[in-house]
Amino acid sequence: MMMFPVAIARIEDAASRAFMQRLYEDQYGLMYAQARKLLSEPQDAEDATQEAVARLVERVDVLMRLEDYKLRAYVVVTVRSVAFNELKRRGRTDWGDPEDVFERTPSSEEDVDAALLWEETVTGLVECIERLPERDQTALGMKYVREMSDGEIA
């Protein structure tokens, strides 16, 4: 039997609690995997997953009305946002809002997969950029995040 987070157990409405329990059972693996991609320690990824569940519980009324593919995208954005916030708290370079990867709500299941693939690509690029010397990171940030011209950077 799966143990549910306290945040789910505290939901008073039985239908909402049952919905969140199903969501947790169905999406836990995806949530943990997304957090693990960003957080190197398994316990940190688990903590981020649990924090994301607590945030999702706060929005259960909205979540219950979403189509499956939009719900999945919402779950992924939430857990990645929590993980990015943890990285930011630790002082890791922030290259923008993690939710910018999902500039629009996907309109189909195919779009969710494409958005997740795009997100993985962006994450890979961020990891590569963070291995560069600070001077190069700053220059790239000025060029592509702040959209400064080469003349402004020089």
Topology:
Layout: H1 6-9, H2 14-38, H3 42-58, H4 60-63, H5 68-89, H6 109-130, H7 134-145, H8 150-153
Helix pairs in contact: 2-3, 2-5, 3-5, 5-6
Provide tags for this entry.
154 residues, mainly alpha, 8 helices, 71% helix
Overview of the structural elements:
Helix 2 (14-38) packs antiparallel against helix 3, helix 3 crosses helix 5 and helix 5 runs parallel beside helix 6. The model is unreliable at 101-105 (pLDDT under 50). The protein contains 8 helices and no strands. It has 154 residues and is an all-alpha fold. It starts with 5 loop residues before the first helix and ends with a helix.
Put the structure in a nutshell.
This protein has 154 residues and is mostly helical.
Into which percent range does the helicity of residues fall? over 70%
Strand content: under 5%
Low-confidence stretches: 101-105
Bulk shape: elongated
Give the termini separation: 60 Å
Secondary-structure element string: HHHHHHHH
Number of H- or I-type helical stretches: 8
- Mean pLDDT over the full residue set: 80
How many strands? 0
Structural class: mainly alpha
Radius of gyration: 18 Å
Task: Note the main sheet.
Answer: none
